[in-house]
Specification:
- This protein has a 4-stranded antiparallel sheet with strand order 2-1-3-4, with no helix packed on it. The chain has a 3-stranded antiparallel sheet with strand order 5-6-8, with no helix packed on it. A two-stranded antiparallel sheet has the order 7-9.
- It starts with a strand and ends in an 11-residue tail after the last strand.
- It has one helix at 93-98, and strands at 3-7, 16-19, 36-45, 51-60, 66-71, 80-89, 101-105, 122-126, 134-138.
- It folds into 2 domains: 3-60; 66-138.
- With 149 residues, it is mainly β.
Length: 149
């Protein structure tokens, strides 16, 4: 019968060679750190050793990082509050190693701002009212934060 070989990173080395399986699962290590397009090379080999090569493109989407957001409130009027990110995570190890960027929407108008004391997971700002604070965490692979200032 036919045999199948799979080169998951298209480098000329088949990670799976001469398999009887019509399909193979691409290991996560070959799909880390999107967004990207990866080329997978496949080969079908007949009983006489003749073969035909094929390639296909695999789109790797970026997965947004996650974190929890908290504050030290309630605070007294004219006091300061600290808003903090914690438990930051990203499925792409390269994004974690590169670090994260943070932004905050302290007036809930849909525009994220970098605080004057920037750019770590903890930021201190003065607030004089109760606000719903929206915040964002981005990895270097993410193109931008909408309306970032």
């Amino acid at each position: 019968g036919l045999k199948y070989s799979y080169d998951f990173d298209n480098n000329g080395i088949f990670e799976i060679a001469n398999s009887s399986s019509l399909a193979a699962t691409v290991p996560a290590s070959f799909l880390a750190d999107g967004p990207a397009t990866r080329t997978v090379h496949g080969r079908i080999i007949d009983k006489d050793g003749g073969f035909t090569d094929y390639t296909t493109l695999v789109a790797v989407n970026n997965v947004a990082p996650t974190a929890s957001l908290s504050n030290n409130g309630p605070v007294s009027e004219s006091g300061t509050a600290t808003v903090s990110f914690a438990s930051q995570a990203d499925v792409a190890g390269a994004d974690v190693a590169a670090g994260f960027k943070y932004s905050y929407d302290f007036d809930n108008n849909g525009e994220h701002h970098k605080p004057k004391k920037c750019c770590d997971a903890n930021s201190e700002v003065e607030i004089f009212h109760v606000y719903l604070v929206n915040a964002a965490i981005n990895s270097p692979a993410m193109s931008s934060i909408p309306n970032k200032k």
